[in-house]
Amino acid sequence: MEDFPVSTVEMVCLGTSMALSGLFFYIYRKKRKTVDKLNEAPRLPLDGKLADILNSTPGKCLQYVVIEGAVQPVGEPLRSQFQEGTVGVVQKLVLKEHKLVWNGLARTWTDSERILHERVSSVPFDLVGADRAAVRVLCPLEASGLDAEIVHEKFHQASYGFTDIIGQYLSGEKPKGQLETEEMVKVGAALTGVGELILDADRTLKLRPPTDGSTFFLSPAGYEAVRLEQEGQATLWRALASLCALAGAGVLLWAARRHYRRLRAEREQDRLRREFKRMAAGEEDDDDDDDGAEPPANACIICMSEPRSCVLLDCGHVCCCYSCFQALPHPTCPVCRQPIRRVVPLYQS
């Protein structure tokens, strides 16, 4: 694994970035598909002709359409527990606990919340349009974008004594209080539904979640707001996928740059090694011509037998042969102990 150009840390970073990029791209493709289906979905007027359109359609079903109408309950509506006279078809009661938790890392108190109780109720309701034409909405709690109106919100402040304060500092938690909210989809509110429209045997129009897995929408904001919101989410996920992919490409480029620099350094070392070998071969020929010659005057200060054959840079000392330079345990000059940046051969005439 020494010749592999990517280190373990880089492999982890690369794998993480590619996994996140794939996940974000998958979410983006789902959002993009939803946006495309919203753009292609026909916006049908809710009037008396809608039943005739469905009756002439094969299977009496339109897979993905946009319907807008006013909310009307089928039977008795839900009544608000806190606002007298307020009625609706979907009701959500939430009780949240708010407290401060000590963060030992940041050395400060941070806000925290926890849902103590949550209850969601609904009754059958229709979307009513012109000519009193109505479409029954099925499975409204499965719809996306059903933002109910807050009809009641009250914060109950926590009260505690001296012993409670001591216990809070010991436990690292300070209760702030409880937030009580009630949300409702009111009767008469305008609602936009996007889903599968069918005509029942009793000529009742029904809007339900699409059987092909497409997103079912019920939104008080309107069709254009739903479409723009989905486009914004698709753009966000695409940007996140692109950033993760760029991060992975950056890791690969960094590894390739490091590997290239290592190969270049190895080629430079090989070149120097061959050059020093040629110099050593020439010196051996001279020694063969003069077998009785004494050791060179400029002998290597390490082995004391070979001539000094290299210049150590940046200090510039000429003190050893290339074989002893390669044998140095640390790349520091034997004379001045400065780091050796590079080495060049010494040519002697």
UniProtKB/TrEMBL annotation:
Localization recorded for this chain is: Mitochondrion outer membrane
Quote the catalytic activity from the record: S-ubiquitinyl-[E2 ubiquitin-conjugating enzyme]-L-cysteine + [acceptor protein]-L-lysine = [E2 ubiquitin-conjugating enzyme]-L-cysteine + N(6)-ubiquitinyl-[acceptor protein]-L-lysine
Q: Give the residue spans that cross the bilayer.
A: 6-28, 236-256
Q: Which residues form a coiled coil?
A: none
Which GO terms are recorded in the biological process aspect for this UniProt protein? protein ubiquitination
Q: Keyword rRNA processing: yes or no?
A: no
Q: Name one GO cellular component term.
A: mitochondrial outer membrane
The record's InterPro entries line, in alphabetical order, gives: MDM2_MDM4_MUL1, MUL1-like, Znf_RING, Znf_RING/FYVE/PHD
> Enzyme class, one word?
transferase
Membrane topology type: Multi-pass membrane protein
Looking up Gene3D superfamilies in the UniProt record yields: Zinc/RING finger domain, C3HC4 (zinc finger) (3.30.40.10)
One Pfam family recorded for the sequence = GIDE
Q: Which GO terms describe its molecular function?
A: ubiquitin protein ligase activity; zinc ion binding
What region holds the RING-type domain?
300-337
EC numbers on record: 2.3.2.27
Keyword annotations for this protein, in alphabetical order, are:
Membrane, Metal-binding, Mitochondrion, Mitochondrion outer membrane, Transferase, Transmembrane, Transmembrane helix, Ubl conjugation pathway, Zinc, Zinc-finger
Which PANTHER family does the entry link to? MITOCHONDRIAL UBIQUITIN LIGASE ACTIVATOR OF NFKB 1, RING-TYPE E3 UBIQUITIN TRANSFERASE
What is the official name of this protein in its record? RING-type E3 ubiquitin transferase
